[in-house]
Structures
1.
Amino acid sequence: MIAKISHGTKIYGALLYNHSKVIAGNAEILQMHQMLLTPSGEYTTGQLLSSFLPFLALNKKTEKTATHISLNPDPKDIVTDEDYIKIADEYMAKLGYGNQPYIVFKHNDIDRTHIHIVSTVIDHEGNKISDSFEKKRSMEICRELEKKYSLIPADEKKITQQNSLLPVDYTQGNIKTQIASVVRYLPKYYNFQSIGGYNALLFLLNITAEHVKNEYHGELKEGLVYFALDQNGNKISNPFKSSLFGKQSGLPALRVAFENSKKVTQETRQLTRKLIDLALKNTAGEIDFKKYLIELGINTVIRRDEKGRLYGISFIDHNTRNVLNGSHLGKQYSANIFHERFAQDHLREKPQFALTSPSIHSTKEISLKEELHPFFDFMLDSASFFNDWGLLDALLLDTMAEDPEEQLFEFNMKKKKKRKTT
């Protein structure tokens, strides 16, 4: 059994991810440990959040108050619901969360069942639960539970290293293999409507693709070549032809993907708009806006020309797995609108790294990401144990707009604290 632990600042996001799968029929609630119950046994995300609010109110200093854990038995293991509950309770108790409120979700939307546990690191006295040697302790607990419940032992380190979809690190060598591990799988998980959208996504993983054209015996030949990028967004490798990575990474296959991606519904677009609107409402500057959206599952890629003018913006929504330009979402999300909003803020900020855009506007620049969304850390090959972690398969709830104040509980507390100290 493999455990994956993630800590974040927005517990609402973890609850929303899991509860939206319950609504979609792809998950169920197995255990409500020291949580507030409803007579009907049915819950909204806001009701689930209410069990954690008293704990969060006790500690305004800890930034990452949410913990989100995935426990993944081997696909060959047969685990009953009763055993899942026992495993979850024993795991949480041994990790130091035995007296905490937590909720256990069983996911069944892929060919193996597994559980997710959402809790908080703030205890009933307002203290932060220690995460010292957490990974080591977690692995030891998993080995104990494997023996107790006759589960197939897992070589966690080997599986993670072989299957993780991670940003390319040119300093590690073997760049071709690293690029292959990304471009072979991204089209399976994400929708993008153009080379520009594809590159916005690749950019987060330190890769860029260029559209090349050549005339050969009077016939136009075209294709894609891939480059690795360094930490400053500069090309750092020789070009690799797309044919080295299989048909799925070539131009013909991607063009089919572009057309299929254009079928995204207005309902799906509206989900992204809701989250962007929350970020616009609760942030003032570009950096805060980007960081806020990262917490809500969206990476933002901004393109600026050589004079610093914002001429393009793309939103990579990990919740719906769509890459959407601002123009795809409506006039109020256009590049001009964001340029006006961020213009003064951009001038006040220190210059950021930039890279040459791989699109046809080769003389313009794209701003370097400030932070990779943590969901990418858990995107794995479909044959691996965690292939749905962070890929929010269910759409966000239509009732999302009813819960913004609850979702922003921690954020607003921090804002009030800052106002008092200034």
2.
Amino acid sequence: MNPQDDTPPATTPAAPAAAPEAPAPATVAASPGALEQTLALFARDYLADRRAERRWKVFFRLSWLIFFLIVLWVLMSARTHSTAPSGPHTALVEVRGEIAADTEASAELLVAALKNAFQDEGAQAVVLRFNSPGGSPVQAGIVNDEIKRLKALYKKKVYAVIEEECASGAYYIAVAADEIYADKASIVGSIGVLMDGFGFTGTMEKLGVERRLITAGENKGIGDPFTPLSEKHRAYTQAMIDQIHRQFIQVVKEGRGKRLKMNGETFSGLFWNGEEAVKIGLADHLGNLDYVAREVVKAEEIIDYTPKENVAERLAKRFGASVGEGAVKAMRGVPSLR
């Protein structure tokens, strides 16, 4: 075989190898359509996502708006009485817990409730139901004065009904009533005044901590828990609470009058059960709210005018907003009827 005969066959098959490249122009021509389809699909999905996102935004905004309106309604209605008056009835005002500013038994809330109860023509009488250990003499005095004013203005009877306890500042309010009813096991009395606090002087010395208190006025630091209580300051404080005690005694005597059977223990700060309280004239009769409404007022339907604690206050207390309140009061040494 001639070697030259092998050369042509090697070059001949080259042409068919290039043939598959022919469809390339068709592929290039089709790519704009595929790109448009891809862009259209992307745009459609994007718009669908945006619409879904807008719907969720609208949903959440409406949810927050509804929630806000509900909270607003609760806050607006929280301090109104729970049932609308309907004809002749017994008006109820609850005195619950500590009597102090910013509590359920503050003078502000109790006076507002009492005014609503007295002003309602359907209210045949007003009943104050007590479950309170007492509290601020100032707050109790304000409520006592207002009860006497409203009684004279509207010519309506006021009855005090004691459930668990009506002690100290709570009893200060109760004596403004025309009659006092109690359960035989109720706690009644504690006609006294106290001012409590803490002293850390010995602890400071043991810890080697020096108290640096600078005042303008020699008595400005009275009651400071880190400074020893001088005899002068002790005497002054004792005289002040003795004066408040005398005020308390005078209010009780005026409220109870000849019904009060006084002895050496009456104003000593002692308390009695309801049965004994009736015997010594701190209460008039044994009986509960339903009995008073049915048998004494003769209006069995009871309408509650007590302002209710709102949601914000309840949550604040639950999460500890008032945890330090007792400590602050102790530091300040605020007089208390309890």
